[in-house]
Amino acid sequence: MATVQQLSTKHVLGIKYLTAEDIHLIFDTAQTFKEVLNRPVKKVPSLRDVTIANLFFENSTRTRISFELAEKRLSADVVNFSASSSSVKKGETLLDTVNNILSMKVDMVVMRHPAPGAHHFLSQHIDANIINAGDGTHEHPTQALLDAFSMQEAIGDLTGKKVAIFGDILHSRVALSNIFCLQRLGAKVRVCGPPTLIPKYINQLGVEVSYSVLDTLRWCDVANILRIQLERQDIKYIPSLREYSKYFGINKDLLDQLDKRIVVMHPGPINRGVEITSDVADSEHSIILQQVENGVAVRMAVLYLLAATR
Ligand code: CP
Questions:
Q1: Secondary structure (3-state) at 158
Q2: Secondary structure (DSSP) of 111-124
Q3: 100: domain range?
């Protein structure tokens, strides 16, 4: 990779700030890094002398490990910060925390934060490249990028393909970022879930809405199944998880009623037996672990391309 093509932005705050060209550039670069990751020597020197801080103010398994691995595979220096064991607990503000970390000569910040817009706020006050690893119920751009990259790998060009997103759309940053990303790539998007978990503004996003799981499974090429985000629900949106599972859970009996094979995805963490049964999550339809594998290559691509904007 001698000359680096550039992204149109120095931050990845959300998919809504990326162009279709940015997304295709990230995918092309990720494809190259995926090949690197399948070699015996998985490390490249691309980000030697670049220091990256991973700031996680919310829990994470996949995103956090995936970013750290991506950074180390690119030979970056990495520091990890967890809010639960930091001076945030003593009342330090987000800006003070980040400025203190940046004064130690950090070049890039990967951050997960519960407040929607926290990354946008930071981008107006600091010089480092910022990557949004999830901001509350707003966006999770690298999840949407790895989802779309994995879909493309499974079914080819997404132009005109039908993608259904099932579940708790109201509280899901994955849903919003997926909608923006899939529309940029020319796919048709439908959301399906209980009416209480579909946001009122959904029609403004140009997606179809359905309350029928079987009808939506018959319609789609790809089913992206989301978890019920109980930790973000201050009131009861569904009578019980058992009832949710009965009416909106995806199980093998439903897939057996289709006259075609569809691709099943889930961003994780999975609540087995609630939104998806094990015989679907672990079936030949599922590309859930390929999504996780592709996450490292996609995040390497994002980090590499952003570093080139410095
Ligand atoms: N998909 C996802 O964001 O998972 P984590 O919360 O474990 O990072």
A1: coil
A2: EEESSTTHHHHHHT
A3: 15-139+293-307
Total domains in the fold of the chain = 2
Nearest CA to ligand 1 atom 3: 63
Could you identify the atom of ligand 1 that is nearest to the CA of residue 267?
1
* pLDDT attached to residue 2: 54
Residue 3: predicted pLDDT: 67
Distance (Å) from CA 58 to ligand 1 centroid: 10
Are residues 85 and 172 both part of a single domain?
no
The pLDDT value recorded for residue 309 is 94
What confidence score (pLDDT) does residue 290 get?
Answer: 98
Give bridge partners of residue 231 from the DSSP assignment. none
Residue 2 lies in a domain: no
Q: Answer yes or no: do 253 and 276 share one domain.
A: yes
Q: What is the pLDDT of residues 27-53, one digit of tens each?
A: 999 999 999 999 999 999 999 999 999
CA-angle at 299, arms to 288 and 114, nearest 5°: 80
Q: Is the distance from the beta carbon of residue 123 to the nearest atom of ligand 1 less than 6 Å?
A: no
> Cβ neighbours of residue 151 under 8 Å, at least 6 residues apart?
158, 161, 163, 187, 222, 263, 265
pLDDT for 82 equals: 87
Please tell me if the CB atom of residue 142 comes closer than 6 angstroms to any atom of ligand 1. no
Q: Would you please indicate which residues are annotated as catalytic (active-site) residues?
A: 62-63, 90, 112, 140
Q: What is the mean pLDDT of each run of 10 residues along the chain (310 residues)?
A: 81 98 98 98 97 95 98 97 84 91 93 96 93 97 98 98 97 97 98 96 96 98 93 81 96 98 97 97 98 98 96
Q: Whose CA is nearest to atom 4 of ligand 1?
A: 62
Which tokens belong to 159? 């132009």
Any atom of ligand 1 within 6 Å of the Cβ of 229: no
DSSP conformational letter for 236: -
Do 42 and 159 lie in one domain? The reply is no
145 and 62, same domain (yes or no): no
